[in-house]
Amino acid sequence: MNLNLDFATILERWPAFLDGALLTLELAFIATVLGTVIGVLGAIGRRSHHPVISRICGIYVEAIRNTPLLVQIFLVYFGLASIGLKFSAFAVAAAALTINVGAYTTEIIRAGFDSVPRGQIEAAEGLALSRPQIYWHVVMWPAIEKVYPALTSQFVLLMLASSVTSQISAEELTAVANYVQSDTYRAFETYILVALVYVALSLIMRAGFWLLGLAIFPRRRRLGTPL
Hints:
This protein starts with 7 loop residues before the first helix and ends with a helix. By secondary structure, it is an all-alpha fold. Helices cover about 80% and strands about 0% of the residues.
């Protein structure tokens, strides 16, 4: 059996692949930022003493974590359309990815909150710090520092999972690959190239998160603790 690989035809479409890769990173960036906000609020809500707030946050987390991402994307895409709200495929993809990663981020950050010793909180209360001050200085920031590696891994996985948004015609990297392979009939070469691009994007994101960690967690940098 002869395997005749021809990457020249595929590489001619590099502007399309570049646009797809940039859109993938843009989706990942939006979902990472908004998902982090949702995760912090959700973690606070899950630990709330108000049972209604805690239950609502718990239902959100369990509903998202126990359903496929593709189904969630379809629910957002067709759900908004059914009530007359028309958005671009990119906006719907960003919203669905944000909702998805927000649930996982909630649980990761909540685990970080739970790891903070109760004695530290009691000491902060003894110093008459307000509840927002306690959450920011004693609970949230140290907690996020502890779970930062898990958070960054989750965000990289989110970037890779964004490939399923091609099912609603979001023109990210996988969607571009589908167009190229259907036009060139070089599916094997196309997806080899796309796989390499995803590896490069993952490495770029991990390097970016590593540098960000060095900047926002100077204590770890001084101690030489890996991020």
